[in-house]
From TrEMBL:
<keyword id="KW-0805">Transcription regulation</keyword>
<dbReference type="Pfam" id="PF01047">
    <property type="entry name" value="MarR"/>
</dbReference>
<protein>
    <submittedName>
        <fullName>DNA-binding MarR family transcriptional regulator</fullName>
    </submittedName>
</protein>
<dbReference type="InterPro" id="IPR000835">
    <property type="entry name" value="HTH_MarR-typ"/>
</dbReference>
<dbReference type="GO" id="GO:0003700">
    <property type="term" value="F:DNA-binding transcription factor activity"/>
</dbReference>
<dbReference type="GO" id="GO:0003677">
    <property type="term" value="F:DNA binding"/>
</dbReference>
<keyword id="KW-0804">Transcription</keyword>
<dbReference type="InterPro" id="IPR036388">
    <property type="entry name" value="WH-like_DNA-bd_sf"/>
</dbReference>
<feature type="domain" description="HTH marR-type">
    <location>
        <begin position="1"/>
        <end position="139"/>
    </location>
</feature>
<keyword id="KW-0238">DNA-binding</keyword>
<dbReference type="InterPro" id="IPR036390">
    <property type="entry name" value="WH_DNA-bd_sf"/>
</dbReference>
Length: 145
C-alpha cells in the first residue's frame, strides 16, 4: 500500500465517522457545537458561559448563541451564580442530562461495534499506529493545534 492510499483510507474513515456523528446529532436536534457544549456540562456540571467559551475554544459571543439555542430547545437553563451576582451558570436540564448520557452510551456502543471483534494484537497495533499518525500530524500542524 502506498502512502497516498493510506491517507485516502484515513480520510475515508474520518468522513464516515463525521457523517455518522452528524446523523446521530441531527436525530437528537443537535449540532456539533451544541453537543460539544452539552459534553462540557456533562463532564463539569453547571458552569458560567465564559468557562464554556474557554473550554470550547470559542468566543463568549459564540457560546451565547449556542446557549440561547439550547435554552430554547430545553437542553439547558441559565441560573444565577450562587456567589457571583454578575455571572450566570449554564445548567443542563433533565432532558440535557439524559441526552448527554445517551451521547456517551452511543459513543461507547460505536467503539464496541468497531473494535470489540479485533484480536488484541491487531487492536494494539491499530492504536499504536493512530498514536504515531496523530503525533506526526500535530507536529506538522505546529503549536497552534
Amino acid at each position: 500500500m502506498s502512502v497516498d492510499e493510506a491517507l485516502s483510507r484515513t480520510l475515508e474513515l474520518a468522513v464516515l465517522v463525521n457523517e455518522d456523528m452528524e446523523r446521530g446529532l441531527a436525530a437528537d436536534g443537535l449540532t456539533r457545537s451544541r453537543a460539544h457544549l452539552l459534553w462540557e456540562l456533562h463532564q463539569h456540571g453547571p458552569v458560567p458561559q465564559r468557562t464554556l467559551a474557554q473550554a470550547m475554544g470559542v468566543s463568549a459571543r459564540h457560546v451565547t448563541g449556542i446557549v440561547d439555542a439550547l435554552v430554547e430547545t430545553g437542553f439547558v437553563t441559565r441560573e444565577p451564580h450562587p456567589t457571583d451576582r454578575r455571572a450566570t451558570l449554564v445548567t443542563p436540564t433533565a432532558h440535557g442530562r439524559s441526552t448527554a448520557a445517551a451521547l456517551v452510551r452511543g459513543r461507547h456502543e460505536l467503539a464496541l461495534a468497531l473494535f470489540a471483534h479485533m484480536p488484541p494484537e491487531l487492536f494494539d497495533a491499530y492504536v499504536h499506529a493512530l498514536d504515531a499518525v496523530l503525533a506526526r500530524f500535530r507536529e506538522l500542524a505546529g503549536p497552534d493545534r
